Amino acid sequence: MTEDSPEINSLTHVAIIMDGNGRWAKQQNKKTIFGHQEGAKTLQKIVEESVRQKIKFLTVYAFSSENWLRPKDEVESLMGLMRHMLKNEVKKLYKKNIKLKIIGDRSLLPKDLQDLIQKVEKKSENNDALTVIMAISYGAHQEILTAVKKVSEQVSKGHLQAKDITQDIFSDFLETKDIPDPDLLIRTSGEQRISNFLLWQCAYTEFYFTPVLWPDFNETEYQKAIETFYGRKRRFGLRE
Q1: Is 19 a catalytic residue?
Q2: Which of 68, 102, 173, 229 has its CA 20 to 30 A from that of 113?
């Protein structure tokens, strides 16, 4: 959704920065991975609630490009958790008519995890109740830079004229091609920034920040965010 007129207050796509797993675990006197495990359970609930709310796209920030800098044991535990989720959720996704798409630099992921992602994406590609987009090894700066390089290559080869490049054309070179921009972005844990997440796509997204840590973010908290969204007036630069 770039140059076309958007539908005011239509909630089609929700993006979530799932923050606070580590702090939640610390409050419980548990290891960090315990918080991530509980966060994975929360994600399952929010996916199911998104289907009930008839939301068509749900993008979650699962692992940022900066997260590779975390302690090695935490990164390895997160990779293991992703393997577990993908292996165990394939049948559930299929039965619930949910499609899974991964964005981010998957070349940095372990080979077996890359293969597992490809398998799940292929199996669920025709499902259409909800598309869950997981951002793994993802950074918006890198996504935009990669898109710029691809556009430049098309121009240098004569396949595209610089004067003809529009927002829509540029968007087609992003990893979110054919996915509408988020209407609502939710960040848990009280932080009020978007941390290199969907920078291009969130130009007119409504933001909702909550102090609730991600493992405690339940269906009721999700509904609060949705109700807040519907209570706002989205003008997209227009007058009321």
Answers
A1: yes
A2: 173
Residue tagged active-site, from 4, 9, 19, 183: 19
Q: Which of 29, 67, 128, 164 is catalytic?
A: 67
Cβ-Cβ contacts under 8 Å for 134 (sequence gap 6 or more): 59, 60, 62, 100, 101, 102, 103
Q: What is the pLDDT of residues 133-178, one digit of tens each?
A: 999 999 999 999 999 999 999 999 999 999 999 999 999 999 999 9
Active site (annotated) includes residue 172: no
- Helix runs in 96-218, H state only: 111-124, 140-156, 167-171
Record: fold of 13-139+180-230: Undecaprenyl pyrophosphate synthetase (3.40.1180)
Predicted model pTM: 0.92
